[in-house]
Design brief:
Keywords: Iron, Metal-binding, Oxidoreductase. InterPro entries: BesD/HalB-like, Oxoglu/Fe-dep_dioxygenase_dom. The protein is of the alpha+beta class. It is built from 6 helices and 12 strands. It is about 30% helix and about 25% strand.
């Protein structure tokens, strides 16, 4: 009996070690490939007019309109519209929606990754934050992802974001598609933020830059209605991208709700 248990434990440990090794090798390969993604961005990465007066980050939530030049946004949208396979997640009474993970974007959406890793975007985030911020690591599946709200009832309930890094952590959203069933307005999926007793509705029309510190801002996205579609580019930045062991474990557990069991080996 003890021999059987010992052999089973060794096989289980070896399997875990192999899975972890495989993921590490994958991320090394993807990291080496991302050195060339900048070629997918030509001309001005960001719209300079949208940055003439940067808003105060005192409330830890700001937005800028038309952050990308029209040609850059059109190319980004075309690339994202080719992503048809999403990982659906459903947490009863909290979240329902589809997601495309960072590692998938590295292979299928290089323009998205190039924007996320561009110095211009990091500079904009840092200027608003008042501190140097950089993209979070490649093994964090939520570092750069596409969020799909395209089935009736897709939403996410009231929550604070978890910070899995030693520095401050902010989220940047750029709406790619947001339309109602008739195509003449925005969907019913609205970003809302609670400040004390007040609830602010942050409209998310395409090409708006929304930045917030989710660890400090209670927020949600209301349910989308039938026939509507809302697609968001979500990117995270941190002032210190190192994590403690405990933070790394918590991130992996959280990511299993969005990306399945493979997140445990990231």
């Amino acid at each position: 009996m003890w021999l059987t248990l010992a052999v089973g434990f060794l096989l289980f440990s070896a399997t875990l070690a192999y899975l972890r090794y495989s993921r590490v090798q994958l991320y090394k390969s993807l990291e080496s490939e991302t050195s060339a993604v900048s070629e997918f961005l030509t001309g001005d990465v960001l719209n300079s007019r949208s940055q003439e007066r940067l808003p105060s980050f005192d409330r830890r939530l700001v937005y800028l309109d038309d952050v990308l030049p029209a040609d850059q946004f059109a190319a980004l949208r075309s690339e994202i519209e080719t992503l048809v396979e999403t990982e659906r997640s459903y947490l009863p009474a909290h979240k329902k929606g589809g997601t495309v993970a960072y590692e998938t974007l590295m292979v299928k959406a290089p323009r998205v990754v190039a924007l996320y890793r561009s110095p211009a975007l990091s500079k904009l985030v840092s200027s608003i934050l008042g501190d140097t911020a950089r993209p979070t690591p490649i093994n964090d599946q939520s570092s750069c992802s596409i969020l799909f709200y395209d089935r009736p009832g897709d939403h996410i309930g009231w929550h604070y974001d978890h910070n899995f890094y030693r520095g401050r952590h902010v989220t940047v959203l750029i709406p790619i598609i947001n339309r109602n069933a008739t195509g003449d307005g925005l969907s019913a999926a609205r970003l809302e933020a609670r400040f004390g007793r007040d609830i602010d509705v942050v409209e998310t029309p395409p090409n708006r830059f929304v930045m917030f510190e989710g660890q400090k801002v209670l927020h949600r996205v209301t349910p989308i209605a039938a026939g509507e579609r809302r697609v968001m580019l979500s990117m995270t930045f941190a002032t210190d991208t190192h994590s403690s062991v405990a933070q790394g474990i918590k991130r992996r557990i959280k990511d299993t709700a969005f990306f399945g069991l493979r997140a445990l080996w990231t």
